[in-house]
Amino acid sequence: MHDGVRRPGGTATLWLMDVVDALRQLGGVAVYEELAGVCTEWQVRRAATDGRIVRLRRNRYALVDTDAHVAAAVAAGGVVSHLSAAAVWGWKLKHEPVRPWVTLPRTRRRPIDNLEIRWADVPDSDVTRHVTRPARTVVDCAKALPFDEALAVADSALRGGEVSRRELLEAVRRSSRNRRTKALEVVEAADPRAANPFESVVRAIARDVRGLTVVPQVQIPRVGRVDLCDEELGIVIEAESHEFHSSPAGLRKDVSRYTECARQGLVVVRFVWGQAMNQPEQVREALVEVVARRRRDLGFAA
């Protein structure tokens, strides 16, 4: 949803996003500065007042009421875990949790409605204030979620500095054998350079494309930083998210960047948020075709 809003002193109507939509594309958590480019201050304050978003510490806003998730876990006799724990830690997610994720002791078998329940005996050392600690949270998500969602969590955890790769690898080693290989794959693929869940999801899709090896946030001379790049094939992948480049200055910057990419012989592939989140197979098919043609053009073996 977008609202046509004339900024004070502006000469043209700018299309601004609904705050909830903007937060969703930003991974469910954002500081005000991230929202300011696509929402007015009035929109943000009104959404918080109406309870459509939640104001967190340090001028951060979120889609998930993390206090409610903690209260639900305590009432159920368990701990906040998985996606809910990731939200509590302030990480950006592909999808915010619809229901509180709670891990209950194996001895607790009474069904509980409106909760996403997992059963495990979580040691006290893996819990703080009724929430699984960062390393445990990443590993739990890596085992329980689809690869792209889990990668977004792991990328965000590393990016935020709450946990190191060494700590994640140790947490995988200490975890149960169930899906340990999958968790290890997520941890090894995680990269703190990833800017947001959108980029993480596109990178996860790219991993399934044979012959394509992308690295996040690559600096290219006279172009600047690009979202993803396979430097050997000369393929740049851009995840075009919430900003929409609606200003004349933004448009000029984009034109200059992509013209310079063409001058350097780079192939640029651009995807919007909805494609990656809702049509991953179409994104993958496009990348497969681009990679095949690029390898032929460069004389690479089939």
Give helix and strand order, one letter per element, not per position.
Answer: EEHEHHEEHEHEEEEHHHHHEEEHEHH
Give me the side-by-side strand order of the main sheet.
11-12-13-14
Average of pLDDT: 90
Q: Please tell me the total number of domains.
A: 3
What ranges have pLDDT less than 50 throughout 5 or more consecutive residues? 1-14
* Helix content percent band: 40-55%
Main sheet, how many strands, which sense, barrel?
Answer: 4 strands, mixed
Structural category: alpha+beta
Straight-line N-to-C gap:
44 Å
- Tally of helical runs: 13
Radius of gyration: 21 Å
> How would you name the oligomeric state of the polypeptide chains in this document?
single chain
Residue fraction in strands:
15-25%
Number of strands: 14
What sort of overall outline do the alpha carbons produce when their principal axes are compared?
globular
